[in-house]
Amino acid sequence: LEQEDSFDFLFKIILIGDTDVGKTSVIQRFKTGMFSERQQSTIGVDFIVRTVNIQGRKVKMQVWDTAGQERFRTITQSYYRSAHAAMITYDITRRSTFNSVPQWIQEMEQYGAANVLLALIGNKCDMESERQVEFNEACTLANQKGIVVALETSAKEAQNVDQAFIVMARELLACN
Ligand code: GDP
Ligand code: MG
């Protein structure tokens, strides 16, 4: 058995984005492999940890949730400051959440570390019939903003969630 608390790298990753895009669901899916229709909006855990093995290196991912603070735009600056990476999340079925992405990027530029790694995550890709944002729009925006990782996920159907975190971990390993 692996020692739970041993690791070679520790990365702090934050999820930001408009309310109800599925940040808490994505984090819970990554941690427990499960999805629950009703996520508590205002009361939540601060962070989860999961250690993944990448090319023989134990990478401990500490993934932080906004715990509902984004609802009131009261995210504290320290939440951004110590993050190695941020997953900027929108809901592919609600264009307004995609339109907010530049503001979230700006928050990171303003309050985050200079070399913070950004990813653009379009969640709820299981709801294809209600899609309002095409993936190529996300890729274009990511290119414009210098974001290297753009992916669509479904916390509900477990699509690309682990993948998103593993891609982030690989990128972080490459530059740390
Ligand atoms: P947050 O406010 O960004 O943390 O979003 P939540 O995780 O609380 O999710 C908001 C709502 O979207 C909840 O009703 C979830 O069940 C639902 N949801 C989250 N992820 C998905 C997904 O991938 N697909 C679908 N269909 N619904 C989702
Ligand atoms: Mg939440």
TrEMBL record:
Organism superkingdom: Eukaryota
Signal sequence extent: none
Subcellular location: Cytoplasmic vesicle, Phagosome membrane; Golgi apparatus, trans-Golgi network membrane
Keywords: Cytoplasmic vesicle, Golgi apparatus, GTP-binding, Lipoprotein, Membrane, Methylation, Nucleotide-binding, Phosphoprotein, Prenylation
Membrane topology: Lipid-anchor
Gene Ontology molecular function, alphabetical: GTP binding; GTPase activity
Any one cellular-component term (Gene Ontology): phagocytic vesicle membrane
Principal subcellular localisation of the protein: membrane
The family this protein is said to belong to: Belongs to the small GTPase superfamily. Rab family.
Protein name per Swiss-Prot or TrEMBL: Ras-related protein Rab-43
Organism per entry: Silurus meridionalis
Lineage summary: Eukaryota, Metazoa, Chordata, Craniata, Vertebrata
Covered range of the whole protein: 6 to 181 of 220
